[in-house]
Design brief:
Number of domains: 1
CATH class: Alpha Beta
Shape: globular
Number of helices: 6
CATH architecture: 3-Layer(aba) Sandwich
CATH topology: Rossmann fold
Helix content: 25-40%
Strand content: 25-35%
Distance between the termini: 36 Å
């Protein structure tokens, strides 16, 4: 399953537009908040796929029947850029367990890079619904590596991937290597540069959230 939020006109278009806008990007707090809001919107859409059961809730005037989700949700993200998107999901899945993966691109002088994974913190994933969030899905390599590392902590009954902006090739890569996942995406761009940056994309989400860093 692939859900592309940009296929449906809504206020979420504003969040995606501001994430891309070089002028609005100068406000780091607003950039983080727009990622957070996108996480909330995508989390709401994703929640429609969960399992539910009817319960009775006592009100001051009677009894109301309400359908509540029965799934145990685990929210996971790739540090550091994924934190605002993760927080947006956590605003809605506020009882969820959480997992964190440290993975990054180690660049070489010839322009190539490899994905390095150094750390993972995760609860038991058996029979859970795993939601893995990262703002950019460029090549898809780091997402696949993170997902496979997390699956060493148990077997989820369902995996969802949430991202703000993806490339077509990144989506296809994930589909090939994780064929049973569902993808929830803010926007999909056609082009990926030789250095694996999405075009038009939005730039380096981690730097825009938290400032530039020294690179290997």
């Amino acid at each position: 399953m692939l859900f592309n939020l940009s296929d449906h006109n809504s206020l979420a278009n504003n969040f995606v537009a501001e994430l891309r806008d070089v002028n609005v990007q100068q406000d780091r707090m607003r950039f983080r908040r727009n990622l957070e809001r996108l996480g909330e919107v995508l989390g709401y859409e994703l929640s429609k796929t969960l399992q539910y059961r009817d319960i009775e809730v006592e009100t001051p005037l009677g009894i109301a029947n309400v359908a509540l989700s029965t799934d145990r949700v685990v929210l996971a993200t790739i540090l550091r850029a994924g934190l605002p998107l993760h927080h947006g999901l956590l605003n809605y899945f506020d009882h969820a367990d959480n997992a964190f993966v440290s993975a990054y691109r180690r660049h070489h002088k010839d322009g190539s890079f490899e994905i390095k994974l150094e750390y993972a913190s995760c609860p038991d994933l058996n029979d859970s619904v795993l939601v893995l969030a990262d703002p950019m899905l460029a090549t898809g390599s780091s997402m696949v590596i993170a997902a496979k590392e997390l699956m060493s902590f148990g077997k989820p009954k369902k995996i969802h991937i949430v991202t703000a902006v993806a490339s077509v090739s990144g989506v296809n890569y994930v589909k090939r290597h994780l064929p049973n996942v569902s993808l929830w995406i803010g926007a999909i761009d056609e082009e990926l540069t030789a250095k694996s940056f999405i075009v038009p994309g939005l730039g380096d989400a981690g730097d825009l959230c938290y400032g530039s860093k020294l690179r290997d």
